[in-house]
């Protein structure tokens, strides 16, 4: 009598295919470009107030980005009391996250903002200095600015990588002088934004001037980010023009 293994009659279960590191990297860079607001430029959406607002997270996203810091600044300016000034933005952050949950909207941005507020509050509470509420922002600007500068030096500008993978161009832009020049310049402009914030805000931090530090941080936030985003859209579209519709796709 011959025994036949059951495995000969049953199909083998295929093993799940792990995503290649290159694909994971590409998806990550494309996602970073979308978060930065480059998606409308890649999709050919006209530059408008609506497109700009959407790229910055909409009205709710703007409120969630600005209000906690503004509440801290106003509360501390009026009371000169550290603990109430730290509690107030945390309460605002919790309320905004709760509103998103109630509306069944994504809470990623609100929760991320709340975590950032919490870290800032802990730093200020541990040191007893109100200006340390802004300390984490210096690290963020320093890391982003430094990473962008280094990417230019080594010949792989990060804005180029992000936009390239977003539009499906990968790293082919490196062999195109026009694209490489524009994307390198864009990387330098964004690096300049982060480093400019440090250059202006750090002296105010070391001087302990909380009022001017808070006001400057607000003024160098969205008011600078929005114009640079528009310039970035224009520059990306100058080298990534939409392809004309093929015959039979015009709808006629």
From TrEMBL:
Keyword 4Fe-4S: no
Biased composition, class Basic and acidic residues, residue ranges: 1-15
Alphabetized UniProt keyword annotations: Membrane, Transmembrane, Transmembrane helix
Region of interest called Disordered, as start-end residue ranges on this chain: 1-21
Top-level taxonomic group: Bacteria
InterPro entries for this protein: UCP010219
Residues spanning the membrane: 82-103, 110-128, 148-171, 183-206, 218-236
Protein's name in the database: DUF3159 domain-containing protein
Organism of origin: Cryobacterium glucosi
